Amino acid sequence: MRWKGRRVSENVEDRRGGGAKVGGISILGLVVAFVAWKFFGVDPQQAYQATQQITQQSQQSESAITQPSSAEKEVAEFVATVLADTEDTWTKIFSLEGMQYRQPKLVMFSGVVNSGCGRAESAMGPFYCPADQKIYIDTVFFKEMHQQLGISANLNVSERQVQGEAGDFAQAYVLAHEVGHHVQNLLGISAQVEQARLKSNTNQSNQLSVRLELQADCFAGVWANQNQQRTQFLEQGDIEVAMDAANKIGDDYLQKRARGQVVPDSFTHGSSQQRMQWFQTGLKSGDINRCNTINANL
Ligand SMILES: [Zn+2]
Question: Where do transmembrane segments lie in this chain (predicted)?
Fold first, then answer.
């Protein structure tokens, strides 16, 4: 997958390793300046200079502690590029339908994170929180896709030559799937399905969850199709790697791995076959109207 040199999104919030917040420091600096001026009668000019010094010092010390490695910078750049790709593509799709696309934020975290949907752990995998319209991802997931599920990196043809991680288009598919949940939220589909789930038993509720997940897969495919037309980003082997990923994150595949047996009624994301099929439906058509998994005969 080609991804270098394109626009990077400004909607990424990096909370890995405690993440230095330059904005926070500046605000703190302003508060310090205000307090100094108000209560100690320090000349505002002096106070301003003093806080500038404080800000610079704390920036230096924070950056010394949290200096990201080049691999961490690379993955952040990759995520921000894919997110920008989804912004550009979905903005266009929405405007063709006479709607306005509202860009989601994406939070990169490590270990645990406090989201608008509660506290979440890395082990839960990437997720979208409708309450704060943010996507949360611990990028260690990309390594796990490779190490635990054997989703291979396509090193021969990829610009992203990071060892030990899943293929970059497989990673992009995961991000695009989460963006797909945001699109469902904007279109009001998530709310409708939530309503229906309240009136249903556990099996029906799981079934509705599957339908939502498959639609997010289909939307990821639509994105890939449209993004290809816009940027020609796909390389040979990319689709196969992403299909392999869709296969290996199917509920039946994961259940078989975890428990040695499959319990279809407990599926919440769909079988491998279904996930591959709906991703492909979106990918081939590039048309969101083909993604009606909610009413489709699955
Ligand atoms: Zn999902």
Answer: 20-40
Return the residue matching tokens 């796990």: 144
Q: Ligand 1 centroid vs 23 CA: distance in angstroms? A: 32
Dmax of the chain from CA atoms? 73
Q: Which residues make Cβ contacts (< 8 Å) with residue 238, sequence separation at least 6?
A: 1, 154, 167, 168, 169
Q: What is the whole-number distance in angstroms between the Cα of residue 124 and the centre of ligand 1? A: 11
Distance 240 CA to ligand 1 centre (A): 20
CA of 205 to the centre of ligand 1 (A): 15
Domain boundaries, the chain: 12-18+28-34+68-290
Cβ-Cβ contacts under 8 Å for 97 (sequence gap 6 or more): 288
Instruction: Give pLDDT tens digits for 24-34.
Output: 444 444 444 44
Read off the tokens for 106: 């994406």
pLDDT digits (tens, 9 = 90+) for 265-295: 778 888 989 999 999 999 999 999 999 999 9
Reduced to 3 states (helix: H, G, I; strand: E, B; else coil), residue 129 is strand
- Residues 105, 130 contacting (CB under 8 angstroms): no
Of 233, 215, 226, nearest in space to 168 by CA: 233
Residues across the chain? 298
